[in-house]
């Protein structure tokens, strides 16, 4: 899967052919969750508190980049 950002103990992935709302995957040894890009709330799954906190702090500064990549990979006709 395409890693968008490597964190200290997990990674943020933006995947192709996904469902709305725009989201990213937080994946790591203790985390497997979907996070809404706009609200930064967990949509599904579970994440270690430290992984979630680090992901949300980083994503808050990069929402436009994440949305652009999600849109690029998930263009709708």
Give your account of this protein's structure.
The chain is of the alpha+beta class and 77 residues long. It has one domain. The protein is built from two helices and five strands, in the order E-E-E-E-E-H-H. A five-stranded antiparallel β-sheet has the order 1-2-3-4-5. A hairpin with a 5-residue loop joins strand 4 and strand 5. It starts with a strand and ends with a helix. The mean pLDDT is 95.
Summarize this structure as a short list of keywords or feature phrases.
2 helices; alpha+beta; 77 residues; 31% strand; globular
Brief summary of the model shown:
With 77 residues, the chain is of the alpha+beta class. The protein has helices at residues 49-61, 63-73, and strands at residues 3-6, 11-13, 23-28, 31-36, 42-46.
